[in-house]
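for ur thesis appendix - Sulfotransferase. copy paste whatever u need, i formatted it the way the template wanted (i think)
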Amino acid sequence: MEEGEGREEGMEEKEERSGESLLPLRPSRPSHPSLLLSLDYSRQPYYPWRTTTDECANYATRFLVPGRAPIVALASFPGSGNTWLRYLAEALTGVFTGSVYHDEMLALRGFWGERESFWQGSTLLQKTHSLPLLPEVKQEGSAGSGEFRFLLPEAPRRVVLLLRNPWECLLSLRHYHAAGHTGFGSSVFFRGQSWHNFTQERAREWVHLNKAWLTLPATDTLVLHYEHLQHRLEQEAGRLMTFLGLPLDHGRLECLLRYPEGRFRRPKYPKHLQGYTFPKSSDVTLRRGMGALSSLLAKGGHPPFPWALYSFTPPVQPPP
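the 3d part is after this line
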């Protein structure tokens, strides 16, 4: 069955179809008002596990009735695994996530929230790789250089920040630039002056972006580490659902643990592409930046960088 088609005849959906389904959004802190998320049954659902032969095939992902969902940013530096986290969130909640980018390639793979406006309120989490913009700063006209920034709602607000081994982030982003979402760039993209310039610029951006999201005032922030999602998915799934104030559906969780990879994720690096080295200058930038960010993580009560789970810290090239 092609993506975008309805269910096959005789396949009964596990979710109740009578009227709207009201999902309680409980505050993760007392400052958040209680909300109800209403599933929109007038729109076609997507079945992420429709090709399986078990009960997981019955679980659907749906849009929300517009205007009923709070704007919650799902922020990360490019290459951090944001799309995979969206798959996890959609699998757990049964609600589409959104994005500021409108990537049709992702939409064709089942991330239908890509076609929605992220301010529409019909999706649950909003993917962004941009810096945050506070509403009071926008009103004052001091947003800066004119680059796109994610306009946050009025406080109190919630943000999910995804962090990943920064060396892996830069490698993933370079592969994306060279070969798209799931492809691999040739080794020529990872050496020479172009690679040196890329890593130095992006290392500074990685530090700057994560610092900006970690220092937002009047913001309830959930920090997730990509490596924790890899190694203790069940525990991190519980943290995410508690933060969103949504009940954990153990049937959905069981299916997610059964099919954790998702439908749009780059496979592991081929062996012939594993001999990466990083310029010393960018390595120093990342390590110093992680020191500063570690202090912010500790100050905010967030999990520290999981160094023991980092499978890749590259050899360093001496300066030319």
